[in-house]
Design a protein that fits this description.
- By secondary structure, this protein is of the alpha/beta class.
- It has two domains: 189 residues, Alpha-Beta Complex (Spore Coat Polysaccharide Biosynthesis Protein SpsA, Chain A), CATH 3.90.550; 42 residues, no CATH class.
- The chain is built from ten helices and eight strands.
- It has an eight-stranded mixed β-sheet with strand order 3-2-1-4-7-6-8-5, sandwiched between helices.
- Strand 2, helix 2 and strand 3 form a beta-alpha-beta unit.
- 35% of the residues are buried.
Length: 236
């Protein structure tokens, strides 16, 4: 049983080398990893050349593939070519714990076919620490893409992967569908994720907008409405 790691990127030249090095360094066994697939959505900062350079001479296959922009599209594009029995979806600024591969495989061997890790931000801000503390609870309200996501290839195909109509909220949509069929487990180890977006926009401002997006989804907003709000309030 092997894992295909899938990482969507757009302009991640500053961090992708560090992430790949961390992924390889923290493995329990290189034999557990089939490949690392970097799915580029149109980077303009030299990320593609950097990934190709990093891939040279590595014991683990590192593949760079192009995709239309959009995280759901990029994740599905990576999954479509993955050869591992387990898919592990990871954001470029999230760093899994030591022996993450072993933890994932052990869960699948117990027939827990999908799940995530707990999460901590690389920040001492009390609110961000509180958000990390919440990720220990098995509630879909406490989930997010920064915690990373593993799922067997078979189950991923059965639920038709990520919904590409979502430009944002695609991770939560997938988790909602997995909770609905009682296929989700929380591994009690921590992914460390960057607080850079909170630092750029402001902790309270960004948290307000994220809560607003969740409320809008709960009240029936379409994927287009969510993206329109995100683009206006968060990206710009």
């Amino acid at each position: 049983m092997k894992i295909s790691i899938i990482i969507p990127i757009i302009n991640e030249a500053e961090i992708i080398d560090k992430l790949i090095s961390s992924l390889i360094h923290n493995l329990y066994s290189k034999n557990n990893i089939k490949e690392i697939i970097i799915v580029d959505g149109g980077s303009k900062d030299g990320s593609q050349d950097l990934v190709n350079t990093i891939a040279e001479g590595k014991e683990i296959a590192i593949k760079l593939i192009p995709s239309e922009k959009g995280r759901a599209k990029q994740l599905n594009t990576g999954a479509a070519i993955a050869k591992g029995e387990i898919l592990y979806f990871l954001h470029a600024d999230s760093f899994p714990p030591e022996h993450y591969d072993l933890f994932i495989i052990k869960e699948v061997e117990k027939e827990n076919n999908a799940g995530c890790f707990r999460m901590k931000f690389d920040s001492t801000h009390w609110w961000l620490r509180f958000l990390g503390w919440l990720t220990q609870f098995k509630s879909k309200k406490c989930r997010g893409g920064d915690q990373s996501q593993f799922i067997t290839t078979t189950l991923f195909k059965e639920i038709n992967g990520y919904d590409e109509s979502y430009i944002v909220y695609e991770d939560n949509d997938l988790v909602d569908r997995l909770f609905a069929i009682n296929q989700f487990v929380i591994i009690p180890e921590y992914v460390i994720t960057s607080a850079r977006r909170y630092e750029e926009i402001g902790v309270w401002r960004l948290q307000y907008h994220f809560l607003n997006i969740h409320m809008r989804k709960w009240m029936g907003a379409s994927s287009e409405d969510l993206y329109r709000y995100y683009k206006e309030k968060v990206v710009s």
